[in-house]
Amino acid sequence: MRTGSASARRLGRLVVAVPYLWLLLFFLAPFAIVLRMAFSDAATDLPPYAPHFQGFSQLGEFLAALDLENFRLLGDDALYWQSYLYSLRIAALTTLIALAIGYPLAYAMASAPRRWQGILLVLVILPFWTSFLIRVYAWIGILRPDGLLDMVLTGMGLTSEPLRLLNTEAAVLIGMVYSYLPFMVLPLFATLQKLDRSLLEAAADLGAPALTAFATVTLPLSIPGILAGSALVFIPAVGEFVIPDLLGGPDTVMIGKVLWSEFFSNRDWPLASAVAVVLLFVLVAPLALLQRARLTRGGAA
Amino acid sequence: MKRLGPGLIMALVAGFAFLYLPILALIAYSFNASRLVTVWGGFSTHWYGALMGNEPLLTAAWLSIRLAFVSATVATALGTLAALALARYGAFRGRTLFSGMVLAPLVMPEVITGLSLLLLFVSAQVERGFWTVTIAHATFSLGFACIVVQSRLAGFDRSLEEAARDLGATPVVTFWTVTLPLIWPAVAAAWMLAFTLSLDDLVIASFTTGPGATTLPMRLYSAVRLGVSPEINAACTIMIGAVALVVIAASLLLKRDQLAST
To answer: Which residues of A touch B120 (CB under 8 A)?
Structure first.
């Protein structure tokens, strides 16, 4: 005897409802609060803060009470927009370097014999599973004056003086590329692995040199992977601040750090919220790009 | 079978050297008897001993493990439900919003997630501590867990479920006796991923924590900012070893799963 489809439907609704409600409560609602907070006055809306939204009948008063002061400050004070620009710059450089290192790596992995591929994949993921703090910390030991890099270079007679890489932008980029590289390699590998090799053979049969075949066949076909990998690196990289904080110097202040210090040091929650709202808007474009890449790749994660 | 050309082998060697040399250097220096990075003072496990006496670090580690355990369990349960919802109950109202909310935390900058959750907890006047961090971690790991389970559900023979239903099994019985046993390697892998994500998180935990709930990454962060110390090298080495074990176990599970399904 089959159970009625009514109970099955009820169960289905429950399966959807439980994670749905969780996400509405702990993912969407918090953003609504941040948005409201960003339009609050730092002087009157001090923590602990309670939302003032009284329902749609009072929507007019609600909107009238919104304060644009925080956003005006973000536009006027060079510190803020320079941090945004600097974050975008670092994230873009990180993405490009990660692509330059990740593409050959992913390509080699995808070209390796099948029985190796699983092991190579685990080897790429393994560092990603170890604490990123540990990985950044490892770079401090390498880059600091008289650290491992200096020891190796002076030992080989290449330099006589410490390089002083730690607390520079170069150190930040090294740390960022290192931490985000797996995010670039994984989607690239997934795309390149699925690539139909017979297309390359056809190109070779038709007399195309390997480089031409790569430029006209492999590269265009791997664009979804390039887009997905770039978005997966670029978006979190814009908001990153732990790596610049540990490896960078006083001149490498990214917007995530600004948000952090507005929040924890200055206790200016409305301004921190405004920083977050603008950051979110800055990221909407790459997110849309990622979504498009997802769709063209047929939903593979 | 194709052989790799020298250029590709170079790319592999250079890529993996870049990924692993820093970690290997860190592990090597955790066994250095000297406190100085520039001097190799011989092999020693001295710093591991010192670590065992570091009460605040051990307390933080134990807190992080408990927290990761609970949040990974919640995230896996919710993520599995979310994966089932997306794979089995195709067209429900608000599906686009739902899948967006599941996937967004994967790329969202952590400062934004952390800040927004903190404002929620403050608004609701919840006391912050173990449970607020647990909820925060479960929320952002949910998406990762969902993706892992979803990929397993995609390669799943649905006729087995239909057969069970035809034989009179209720949906709940079908789930426990057919669906779950078939997807459990993915569920286990999702749990392990959520567990390590929680263990690793510094930013979101810093925002959502309260007095008395200092996690291991928060302790490490303040220690690391003070400079390199062999004791921290030892702590990191232990964590790397633990994660390596978990990952090897997970990949063996998935491998057996792949063999079973082919």
So the answer is: 26, 29-30, 33
